[in-house]
From TrEMBL, chain A:
<keyword id="KW-1133">Transmembrane helix</keyword>
<keyword id="KW-0812">Transmembrane</keyword>
<dbReference type="GO" id="GO:0005886">
    <property type="term" value="C:plasma membrane"/>
</dbReference>
<feature type="transmembrane region" description="Helical">
    <location>
        <begin position="128"/>
        <end position="149"/>
    </location>
</feature>
<feature type="transmembrane region" description="Helical">
    <location>
        <begin position="32"/>
        <end position="51"/>
    </location>
</feature>
<dbReference type="GO" id="GO:0015658">
    <property type="term" value="F:branched-chain amino acid transmembrane transporter activity"/>
</dbReference>
<dbReference type="Pfam" id="PF02653">
    <property type="entry name" value="BPD_transp_2"/>
</dbReference>
<feature type="transmembrane region" description="Helical">
    <location>
        <begin position="6"/>
        <end position="25"/>
    </location>
</feature>
<feature type="transmembrane region" description="Helical">
    <location>
        <begin position="57"/>
        <end position="77"/>
    </location>
</feature>
From TrEMBL, chain B:
<dbReference type="InterPro" id="IPR051120">
    <property type="entry name" value="ABC_AA/LPS_Transport"/>
</dbReference>
<dbReference type="InterPro" id="IPR027417">
    <property type="entry name" value="P-loop_NTPase"/>
</dbReference>
<dbReference type="InterPro" id="IPR003439">
    <property type="entry name" value="ABC_transporter-like_ATP-bd"/>
</dbReference>
<dbReference type="InterPro" id="IPR003593">
    <property type="entry name" value="AAA+_ATPase"/>
</dbReference>
<protein>
    <recommendedName>
        <fullName>ABC transporter domain-containing protein</fullName>
    </recommendedName>
</protein>
<dbReference type="GO" id="GO:0016887">
    <property type="term" value="F:ATP hydrolysis activity"/>
</dbReference>
<dbReference type="InterPro" id="IPR017871">
    <property type="entry name" value="ABC_transporter-like_CS"/>
</dbReference>
<dbReference type="Pfam" id="PF00005">
    <property type="entry name" value="ABC_tran"/>
</dbReference>
<dbReference type="InterPro" id="IPR032823">
    <property type="entry name" value="BCA_ABC_TP_C"/>
</dbReference>
């Protein structure tokens, strides 16, 4: 039972991460591999605030969103001026820098030792101490994230995002400030990733930089692609599949040292298979291809 | 002739040493259809791209209603009342014809993020009005029955009509049309040319790039002939047609 709840909580965290990346990558067509960095910012902000000031959970979450959003703007404004492949490289660079900072600023982040002993969250004086309580908390934030994304995507604002994804020139000629839209979307996505980070930090009660690597970014992107970019429920399906699948390996009886490697192979294999035979994922409406291929 | 609404003076632009525009000056008067003709590579589309802000000129000036608009970003120019179509028909192919038209309205408060959450009613109200207007425009263009189909499922001619509908939805004063009737069946062509004349009759100013000389002769009030980035001849369709320099260029 405990194990099942653990898996459900993890799925919840990855739903928040992948749904928010989907807004950036799936709906707006900006292939970012910096999502784990914003996830990490959220996690570290929450951990440091909880450890140093013993601040309440909701304050941590607001601070994490604001800081991560600001960082999103800081990264987004210069890197969104360049397009396609170059943008991917820019986000990759930021991801690497973010990891190095977390890993090397030992006095502040604890470096590779991480930050242990993050307290359980307290909301309006109520301490969330059971796993079930935590699942409810994650569920609430999942629902909130999905609702926000749903509102954005179904609105005229969301229609502009689709136009930008499909043809920036058309969007500009129709009077849309493409650069501003991109930065806004990047900031929203970064803020939401931070929410997932806060959840993770308080849940596991320990964080270290290895949870926020490039591999993690690519994992989140895989969820989006396999689930279906540009659809509301695609990443939810993707998160369930990609979190549950490696867990099944345990029941096959693979020793854990082998299972970890097999996991990577499965992710890689799945990604290649989907790119070749089902580029739109399970539920997606958008396939990542070169712009030339689509035109 | 009434005053110039759009004025370009001394525009220059070269690509890798090839002069696409060389000291080009030209006026568009309020309420006229100006034809822009000339051989391929004469710089006609480059002129459109400069006027709509997609390409920065190396020299010269563009002004709209005597305000300098040189070098403004494309979306700013679009919001100042310049609408355009593209030679290669840029539409959002995955979105419905109706959504393409809706995207072209310039003043939708629902496109601002704050209004998505805090003043959603205003956005919805506006959307409802825009939708009615868009459907009326699609009806006038005769493609209303395709309103909910993805733009890519429309025939080539219908897509050209749709891009014109998008310009109408923009309620722009200046409309730049890049080859609106190229490769179109004759009856569709009449329809499109009729819509262009309606635009003028509603007080809009239109520039028309077109290789189909018959279409140009019967639609335009004034014609400019361009070659190698410069204006070679200018006048009524008849005058330009009979200009020896034009005849020579076409025989070449």
């Amino acid at each position: 039972m405990e194990y099942l709840l653990h898996i459900l909580i993890l799925i919840g965290i990855y739903v928040i991460l992948s749904v928010s990346l989907n807004l950036i990558a799936g709906h707006t067509g900006l292939l970012s591999i910096a999502h784990a960095a914003f996830y990490g910012v959220g996690g570290y902000v929450a951990a440091l605030m909880a450890l140093k000031f013993n601040s309440p959970f909701l304050v941590n979450i607001v601070c994490a969103i604001v800081l991560s959003g600001l960082l999103g703007a800081l990264v987004g404004i210069p890197s969104l001026r360049i397009r396609d492949d170059y943008f991917v490289i820019a986000t990759f660079a930021f991801q690497v820098i973010a990891f190095s900072v977390l890993n090397n600023w030992v006095s502040f982040t604890g470096g590779p030792m991480g930050l242990p002993g993050i307290p359980q969250p307290t909301i309006f004086g109520l301490q969330v101490s059971s796993q079930l309580g935590f699942l409810v908390l994650v569920g609430v934030f999942c629902a909130l994230t999905l609702w926000v994304i749903h509102r954005i995507v179904r609105s005229p604002f969301g229609r502009v995002l689709k136009a930008i994804r499909e043809d920036e020139v058309f969007a500009q000629a129709a009077g849309k400030n493409v650069a501003a839209y991109k930065v806004l979307v990047f900031v929203i996505g970064a803020g939401m990733a931070a929410v997932a980070g806060v959840m993770y930090a308080h849940y596991i009660s320990f964080i270290d930089p290895t949870s926020f690597t490039v591999m993690e970014s690519i994992f989140i992107l895989s969820i989006v692609i396999i689930g279906g970019a540009g659809s509301l429920w695609g990443p939810v399906v993707g998160a369930v599949v990609l979190v549950v699948l490696p867990e099944l390996l345990r029941f096959v009886g693979l020793p854990s040292s082998v299972a970890a490697n097999v996991r990577q192979i499965i992710y890689g294999g799945l990604l290649v298979a989907f790119m070749m035979w089902r580029p739109r994922g399970f539920l997606g409406e958008y396939a990542f291809q070169g712009k030339e291929a689509r035109e | 002739m009434s005053e110039a609404i759009l004025k370009v003076t001394g525009l220059s632009k070269s690509f890798d040493g090839v002069r696409a525009l060389s000291d080009l000056s030209c006026d568009l008067c309020r309420g006229e259809i100006l034809g822009l003709i000339g051989p391929n590579g004469a710089g006609k589309t480059t002129l459109f791209n400069v006027v709509t802000g997609f390409i920065a000129p190396e020299g010269g000036k563009v002004s709209l209603k005597s305000t300098d608009i040189t070098g403004l970003a494309p979306h700013r120019l679009a919001n100042r009342g310049i609408a355009r179509t593209f030679q290669d028909l840029r539409l959002i192919r995955q979105l419905s014809a109706l959504d393409n038209a809706l995207l072209s309205f310039r003043d939708q408060p629902g496109e601002r993020l704050g209004n998505v959450f805090f003043r959603a009613r205003r956005g919805r109200e506006h959307e409802r009005q825009n939708r009615q207007e868009a459907i009326r425009l699609l009806e006038d263009a005769g493609i209303a029955e395709k309103a909910d189909d993805p733009a890519e499922d429309l025939s080539y001619g219908q897509q050209k009509l749709l891009s014109l509908v998008c310009c109408l939805a923009a309620r722009a004063e200046v409309v730049l049309l890049d080859e609106p009737v190229a490769g179109i069946a004759p009856e569709m062509k009449e329809k499109i040319l009729g819509m262009i004349r309606d635009l003028r009759d509603n007080g809009k100013s239109v520039v028309l790039i077109e290789h189909d000389l018959d279409a140009v002769m019967q639609t335009c009030d004034r014609v400019v002939f361009m070659d190698a980035g410069a204006k070679v001849s200018e006048g009524t369709p008849q005058e330009v047609r009979n200009d020896p320099k034009v005849i020579e260029a076409y025989i070449d």
